[in-house]
Amino acid sequence: MLAEDALIPLSALQHQLFCPRQCALIHVEGLWAENERTAEGRILHERVDSGHGESRPGVRVTRGLALRSFALGVVGRADAVELSGDPPRPRPIEYKRGKPKAHRADEVQLCAQAICLEEMFGVPVPEGALFYGETRRRQPTLFDAELRRLTAETAAAARAMIAEGRSPPPVRTPACRRCSLEALCQPGRLEKPPRVARWLSAQIEG
Questions:
Q1: DSSP β-ladder status, 74-84 and 59-69
Q2: For the chain, how big is the Rg over CA atoms in Å?
Q3: C-alpha to C-alpha distance for 67 and 75, rounded to whole angstroms
Q4: What would the pLDDT profile of 132-175 be if each residue is shown by its tens digit?
């Protein structure tokens, strides 16, 4: 079992699956920059986190619940957790700007929340939901064996990289255009070093 100070932010899993270098820039080098997408996402989460819990027939909603999993080695907060049944069974709800994505980073983040809730409540959490601001609808998410495996592997990779304290080299991909850290990362420039740097490297190696 990991020590408390070895836990990494739950958000690092989403960053790691989207781009390991982005994860390192944020969680190793402490860099951050906002663009329109991240600002909209931050405002959305601030609104959700500032909201009060609520109750509906048979369901109680808790917002901003602190989460922790020693199995995954993560700590964070849930946007919303629905509690229903007796004893109460939790169901995580995560709010996202935009629309569902081709990659599984959002699903991994939600699954990590479910694993935290399973440890905290001692009950199975088989499914949750992602709410996207652009579509204005929930996307149910089942926490099957494949998603749980991907979540555990992503958490292990992020923990190892953060513990090592080393950022991987940049690799330009189409996703770079959507990343708020593109100017800090400089994937196009650093992936192919300037001609002088390559010449000096050749002289040293020669």
A1: antiparallel
A2: 19
A3: 6
A4: 988 888 999 999 999 999 999 999 999 999 999 989 888 888 88
204 burial class (0-12, 13-18, 19+ CB within 10 angstroms)?
Answer: exposed
Axis crossing angle, helix 105-121 with helix 11-18, rounded to the nearest 10:
150
Instruction: For residue 5, give the amino acid letter.
Output: D
Mean residue pLDDT of the chain comes to 84
What is the model's pTM? 0.80
Within 8 A by CB and 6+ apart from 117, the residues are: 67, 78, 81, 90, 92, 125
Tell me how far apart the terminal alpha carbons of the chain are, to the nearest angstrom: 48
Residue 82 structure tokens: 């629905």
Higher pLDDT, 3 or 204: 3
Q: Are 136 and 98 in contact (CB under 8 A)?
A: no
Give residue 11's identity as a one-letter amino acid code.
Answer: S
How far are the Cα atoms of 4, 16, 73 from residue 29, in angstroms, in the given order? 21, 14, 20
Q: Which CATH class is domain 4-169?
A: alpha beta
